[in-house]
Amino acid sequence: MDRTHHPGYTPATETRRLIAHGLPKVLPETLGGRHRFSPLSLYVGDRLAAAAFARLDEVGLFWLDVWVLSHSRAGRWTLRDGISTAAGPDDDLLAPAAATPHGHGRADGTTRSNINAERWFPWPAKWVAYGALRLSSEVGAVRFEGRHITVPEHGLQVLAWSPSRKKETNVELLDQRGEPISTLPLM
């Protein structure tokens, strides 16, 4: 079901829809008119999921929204945190990133969040980390936490993970044939 032409945009509902049905095969070339938002990227892990949307607001500004969800014991995905970033006038959210000094991509806006912060009882904090990768057109897939994830043509890939104090989290970048080309540190 294509929802990109509806003006109503509810992050939890749209992200759950992406988890259930995957990314649409065809995305709008630009936002405007009937197309007010578009899903860009999806990552689904064992306990965490992340989704990215491009959104056009009521005054004509473009936004990049990244949302993270956790999987409950009852089998339901719950929206936990998210971030919205205004896209600059020269930012094309639907175009691959140019090659960077670090190789074939960069991690944009990775962040950590305590998803247990509003609890009344003194349970320990539950930290999650999430962020968006901007990847060049040479990157066809990434390997992350044992999963092989195909990167969308526009090169934006979101990820979510449980951060570790003892080791650095990395993502392996793969070319179009699936051969490793680089490793990118996330935090």
Structure description:
The protein has 187 residues and is mainly beta. The protein has one helix and eleven strands. The strands form three sheets. Strands 1-2-3-4 form a four-stranded antiparallel β-sheet, covered by helices on one side. The protein has a four-stranded antiparallel β-sheet with strand order 8-7-10-11, with no helix packed on it. A three-stranded antiparallel β-sheet has the order 5-6-9, with no helix packed on it. Strand 7 and strand 8 form a beta hairpin. The radius of gyration is 16 Å and the shape is globular.
Total number of beta strands: 11
Rg (CA only)? 16 Å
Mean pLDDT: 79
What structural class results from the helix and strand content?
Answer: mainly beta
H/I helix tally:
1
Strands side by side in the biggest sheet: 1-2-3-4
Helix content: under 10%
**Main sheet: strands, sense, barrel:** 4 strands, antiparallel
Oligomer: single chain
Summarize the helix and strand pattern as letters: HEEEEEEEEEEE
Q: What share of residues are in beta strands?
A: 35-45%
Which residues form runs of ≥5 with pLDDT under 50? 1-6
Q: What is the CA–CA distance across the termini?
A: 36 Å
Form type: globular
